[in-house]
Amino acid sequence: MSSAIEIAAAVRSGARTARSVAEEHLATIASSEGEIHAFNHVTADAALAQADEVDAKVARGEDPGPLAGVPVALKDNLCTRGVPTTCSSRILDGWLPPYNATVVERVLAAGGVPVGKTNLDEFAMGSSTENSAFGPTLNPLDPSRVPGGSSGGSAAAVAARFAPLSLGSDTGGSIRQPASFCGVVGVKPTYGVVSRYGLIAFASSLDQIGPFAATVDDAALLLDVISGHDRMDSTSIATPPTALLNDGADVAGLRVGLVTELTDVEGIAPEVRAAVERAASALEAQGARVERISVPSCIYGLSAYYLIAPAEASSNLARYDGVRYGLRVDGDDVYEMNSATRDAGFGAEVKRRIMLGTYALSAGFYDAYYGQAQRVRTLIIRDFASAYERFDVLLSPTTPTTAFKFGAKTEDPFSMYLSDICTIASNLAGHPAMSVPFGVGSDGMPIGVQVLAPALGEPVMFRVARAIESAGGAA
Amino acid sequence: MPKQPTEQVSITRSDVEHVAMLARLALTPEEVGEFAEQLTAILGHATDISSLDLVGVPTTAHPLPVTNVLREDVIGTSLDRDEVLAAAPSAEEGRFRVPRIMGEA
Lengths: 475, 105
Fold this sequence. Notes:
- The structure holds two protein chains of two kinds.
- Helix content of chain A is 40%, strand content 13%.
- Chain A is an alpha/beta fold.
- Chain A has a domain at 4-226: Alpha-Beta Complex (Amidase signature (AS) enzymes).
- Chain A starts with a helix and ends in a 5-residue tail after the last helix.
- Chain B has a domain at 1-52: Orthogonal Bundle (Histone, subunit A).
- Chain B has a two-stranded antiparallel ribbon.
- By secondary structure, chain B is mainly alpha-helical.
- Chains A and B meet through helix 10, helix 11, helix 12, helix 13 and helix 14 of A and helix 1, helix 2 and helix 3 of B.
- Chain A: Belongs to the amidase family. GatA subfamily.
- Chain A: Keywords: ATP-binding, Ligase, Nucleotide-binding, Protein biosynthesis.
- Chain A: This is glutaminyl-tRNA synthase (glutamine-hydrolyzing).
């Protein structure tokens, strides 16, 4: 199997056809998808048609684009015209979006070949894919373990070599945590770098789309393709960082801070902390200077997140009312129809978050809950700002442990929420962060190291990630 | 006078029923009991921030310093009406069809 960069180069030069690449990956999907369940929907015919278009461009001497012939798996909360888009929820049963998300248009225009829609926790609410209405995705490295979530299908698709690239969305860690669990690279870009037009909204002040890949450079390739201003998303910024592919620069002289609140605390497995320390030593060996740094308000991130995200979700998910799309359960009047539809269409975790968010926003509580959580966001942004006066990037674990077993955290919702404890602060601050595989735990499962950078710090973040990747990770 | 969450947040069954009505969720009696317990537990964890003194700290709604985006008011293409209505559970005469809204007979 080849990297995305190798495939695109081979297809552009005419050494390989996009069709042969697509057929090879569709064959891998056909042989193993039954065991993994990475996809809600495989789009084999559309993939072959797009591959043929890429080949026709090559034959005509046209540039087929930087993703020429590269298979890409799409999280099933990204709208795809005429292709079912479910968010792994019954409430979108039968819905065919009338338009493509901007990121899907960009992948197609770059010559990428979408191969299917990947499984997720319903409406991206969860950390294991166990909340999918269509059953969980299995971790390709150990089928008794979860792939992480919510973008578990996208992470598993890359780990199982169904596609060299995939797209996910990250609201509190939903790209980085499954990347860590499946041993692949996952990136949450700066808020505003990638257009969310056509991403079905969960928590709008936090959601961001980003890439999964087997290597840091492949992730950079895809992020370069999908980033950029889009007038259809008013939160997209005018001039996002570009040219993230290897710029040849090394990490000599960079200042790297190891975040104590996310690393040296109870709940972080000792072997995970040890891997982060080895990654820090590897950066030191390459000329970086590493010190521990305190970002005190990080400890309030989880509480702030579990007020802000459900509050925004309760508002965003009000649109599933049985009127405009998807499921309808009949009732005598519109109130009964709305309520019966939503009760039948949403799973337990989605209802829990809608209830939590509606409560937090209800009369009299708004300022005490949502307002207070937004003030905590300001504290976190201020603490990061002072950390970045002394450091170029920060490091931490991506997740407290390696991938857990199915059912391990389904009884107690809060224990599941804790698996996002290291990733949430970046969403609250709007900063970029990415997970790079680095070593394995005693259970043989991969460990992820998280690289955090200030807003629009993607170039330095990728440089550090590349240095960590090149160091291997063996203990 | 805004209500203040206390150290012991306690969500009752009638709180859950009220919120379920606001959220348009027809919960079963079992779900009402479960959510009362779970919301109490989850909001209990949030007391660590509700007790912080953050008077004078501004709220953050958007993490980057961007301002409202304006564009020219020009006519563009929008989604095709028939295609959009085709996705609806029920439509009639170019509109979404819903059960009765008011109490009319």
